[in-house]
Amino acid sequence: MTSLTPLLQTYSVLAMTLAAGTNLSSTLVTLPALLRSPPTSLAQQWKTLFDHGITPVVSLAFSSAAGFAALAYNAPTPIGLLNAAGRGGGGGSVSQRTLYAAAALLGCGLAPYTLLLMGGVNDELSLRATTGGMGKQKGETRALVERWGRLNLARGCMLLFSAGLGMWACVV
User: Fold this and answer.
1) Is 93 left (phi over 0), alpha (psi -120 to 50) or beta?
2) Helix axes 39-74, 5-25, angle to 10 degrees
3) Is 84 within a domain?
């Protein structure tokens, strides 16, 4: 594994950064342009954005999280940080294993975040896309897309934080 470590580190950080960038660009770059559309086509355009973004973001995030998990598993176990008195627990440093594990957990957090926090919004927007923008309450498509954008922004930041923790682990 030692000879593959630099390759796995590079891939995992790069893949998570790409997942975060793709996710964030949906909200920061594409969504403002979509919000100029009428509600009937807005839901359909959102669905196109969602369908085209889900595969690369999920693939990159989960393959990166698997890489971070493998790096965490193979990271040297800290013997114990010794303080001046010779007792463990001092020093305030964070182990490489902990950083990789946290990066992996945040990357895998994409799924529960999406299902639990975004699931209702995704379902309603998907319904509106298939019914021509007329969901349960037809006047709120724009508000739903804006809410999705805020939730998606937070999800992208979570992925970016995962990449940052993974990068930190690489240099510790």
Assistant:
1) beta
2) 160
3) no
pLDDT tens digit string along 6-39?
A: 999 999 999 999 999 999 999 999 999 999 998 7
The amino acid at residue 112 is P
pTM of the model: 0.87
Q: Residue 31 domain-assigned?
A: yes
Range of the domain at 52: 3-74+94-170
For residue 160, pLDDT beyond 90: yes
Q: Where are the alpha helices (DSSP H) in 26-95?
A: 31-34, 39-74
How many Å separate Cα 103 from the centre of its chain? 10
Q: How far is CA 98 from CA 5, 53, 103, in A?
A: 16, 30, 9
Whether 85 is covered by a domain: the verdict is no
| Token couple for 102 | 């946290």
- Structure confidence by residue, pLDDT tens digits, 99-116: 999 999 999 999 999 999
Position 70 in a domain: yes
Query: If we measure between CA atoms, which residue out of 148, 156, 162 comes closest to residue 24?
Result: 156
Find out whether 96 and 76 touch, Cβ atoms under 8 Å.
yes
Q: Which of these, 67, 33, 47, lies nearest to 167 by C-alpha position? A: 67
Query: What's the domain count of the chain?
Result: 1
